[in-house]
Write a structure and sequence with these properties.
Layout: H1 6-22, H2 25-53, H3 56-62, H4 64-72, H5 78-90, H6 98-127, H7 136-148, H8 151-154, H9 157-181, H10 188-205, H11 210-222, H12 229-260, H13 276-281
């Protein structure tokens, strides 16, 4: 596969951030909707595989299929634009300012949530035959996940809130490495391989991804999860999204930008001192 060095693909990251700011409202919403819908389907697929096989690692290995599909179609996740769009501002690209960045983030959030919610209703409908049965083991499992990852954090108060915040940071550290990793290659197979590894890691480790949660928690509530919408927002979605933001910007975007685009001058070292033998011959 063709490999691009960091100084080349980090410039592509800045270009991508600028492109997303200038994208029309319609295109931004549609791409975000499709990304949220596909990622929700990938999440329930991975959970189903893990339950039926009895192997959580197998589910984690297959979850990146959804991420790869949406990336290759150039659909947008909130986690990705958290990392890429601020770089266009740092680079002072024309028309890229704070207002435009927040507009992009807001539209992608709305689109992702709408797509994930649509998938949640579709999957819950087919599992329950139009809400006429209980949904079986898969629905029960997702309901349990929803409760444990809201009420479980709430039970620990402030420490629980910061726990999920840090899990959100770790998640987008890995997810954004997948987004960036796809830029190191110009071949489809190279992009897939680079995306697969970090996305698999985040899913298996149980880190918190705001868009995956946009599917899991509404689905859990539809299937009878015992928590409220506000508990989901305060004790999961909000700290997760903030963690995703900080993780993407601080652990991926800024380190790459400041060491491969806005680099410092290289050090100029003096000539090495002469050895005693060299001095004697001089």
């Amino acid at each position: 596969m063709a490999y691009l060095i960091p100084s080349e693909f980090v410039t592509k990251m800045v270009d991508a951030g600028e492109e997303k700011i200038h994208m029309s409202t319609k295109d931004t919403l549609i791409r975000a909707f499709m990304a949220g819908a596909i990622l929700g389907l990938a999440a329930v697929f991975a959970i189903t595989v893990a339950m039926k096989s009895g192997s959580p690692i197998l589910g984690a290995c297959l979850f990146p299929v959804g991420f790869i599909m949406l990336y290759l179609m150039k659909f947008d996740l909130l986690t990705g634009v958290f990392t890429l769009v601020p770089l266009a501002l740092l680079d002072k690209r024309p028309g890229c300012d704070m207002q435009q960045m927040l507009r992009n983030w807001g539209l992608v959030f709305v689109g992702n949530f709408a797509g994930a919610l649509t998938t949640a209703f579709m999957v819950s409908f087919i599992l329950t035959y139009g809400y006429n049965t209980d949904g079986g083991a898969i629905a029960a499992k997702v309901s349990t996940i929803g409760e444990s990852r809201t009420l479980g954090y709430e039970a620990h108060g402030v420490a629980g809130w910061f726990t999920i915040f840090i899990r959100g940071m770790l998640c987008n550290w890995m997810v954004s490495m997948g987004v960036v990793g796809a830029m190191i290659s110009t071949s489809a197979t190279g992009k897939m391989a680079a995306m697969w590894m970090p996305v698999m890691l985040f899913f298996f480790m149980g880190f918190e991804h705001s868009i995956v949660n946009m599917f899991l928690f509404p689905f859990s509530m539809i299937m009878g999860g015992d928590f409220t919408f506000m508990q989901y927002i305060i004790w999961n979605e909000l700290p997760t999204a903030l963690g995703n933001l900080f993780g993407g910007v601080l652990l991926v975007g800024l380190p790459l930008y400041f060491t491969h685009v806005r680099t410092s001058k290289t050090r100029e070292l003096g000539k090495p001192a002469k050895t005693a033998a060299e001095s004697a011959l001089a």
